[in-house]
Design brief:
Blueprint (H helix, E strand, L loop, with lengths): L5 H22 L6 H12 L1 H8 L8 H16 L2 E7 L9 E5 L1
Antiparallel strand pairs: 1-2
Amino acid sequence: MSAIPKTYLAEIKNLVEKIVTDIEKANGHYPKDIIDQVFVEIENKHRREYKTWIKLPNGSLNDRHVNPYIGSLVRRYTGLKVLAYPVKPKSILIKGYSTLGH
């Protein structure tokens, strides 16, 4: 069985892609802390979906798979490289994140 249920993969991809696009449009570029900004957006506006994604059928939490997956999607969508890790986040959903850049 996949670490993330297949039913959630497309949902996560679509939401992360939309958030990344919105952040880029608002800033005119991808900020270094875009991963943290994505998690702040999820925390503020999509918490219910996030809780669904990280809750496995047996009741245990799956954030150790979901969170890195979200970070890797952000990196893939932006095409940026990791500059520094770990960086203290503003989001309470993650313990650290990578800053991204060229």
